[in-house]
Amino acid sequence: MVGHSYGGLVALQLAIGSPELVHSLALLEPILRAVPSGKANYEQVMLPTVGAYRSGNKRKAVEIFCDAVFGPGWQNVVEHMVPGGVEQAIGDMDIFMQEQAAMQEWQFGPSEAATIVQPLLSVLGLRSRQIMKEGRLLIHSWFPQTEDLDVQTTHLLQIKDQKGVARGLAAFFSRHPMTDDR
Question: What is the pTM of this model?
Answer without folding.
Answer: 0.92
